[in-house]
Design brief:
Number of helices: 5
Structural class: mainly alpha
Number of strands: 0
Helix content: 55-70%
Largest sheet: none
Order of helices and strands: HHHHH
Low-confidence stretches: none
Mean pLDDT: 80
Distance between the termini: 66 Å
Length: about 150
Amino acid sequence: MLYVNLSKYFWLLPVLFVAEIYISWYFASIIGFWWSIAWIFGTMMLGTALLKRTHIAIAASMQSLFVSGGNLNTLYRQNISYIMGAILLIIPGIISDAFGILLLVYAFYLQTIGTIPHKTNYEQNKGNDDVIDAEIINNNAIDYDRNGHNSL
């Protein structure tokens, strides 16, 4: 697994905080104060509802892993993006909501489109060319009419 040292990016936290406040303020000036409050509470409720059903989402992804034979890395990325997307929706602000929605779309992609198996090559499983496909019919299975003739 790849580990990233995040301590060198710690200076970005105040920059993101200021950008979050500025963009949220600008967004509120466009749509109105009450609509922005409704947006914040709506995304908080959506994120909370998604976190409450995390166990169901993880169980469904585990089931799809066992049925389709996917790999654990995809399962890990799908569940982490689902949880982080829900947490980012709870945090008030437009940037965090946008990142949260992107992570949820990525989790949905991994669950649906990302788990479709690749096209298999059927030419490899062709078999031997010397084998003739035939059906063996037992004499006891043949129906005879009244005169003793084969009805086939």
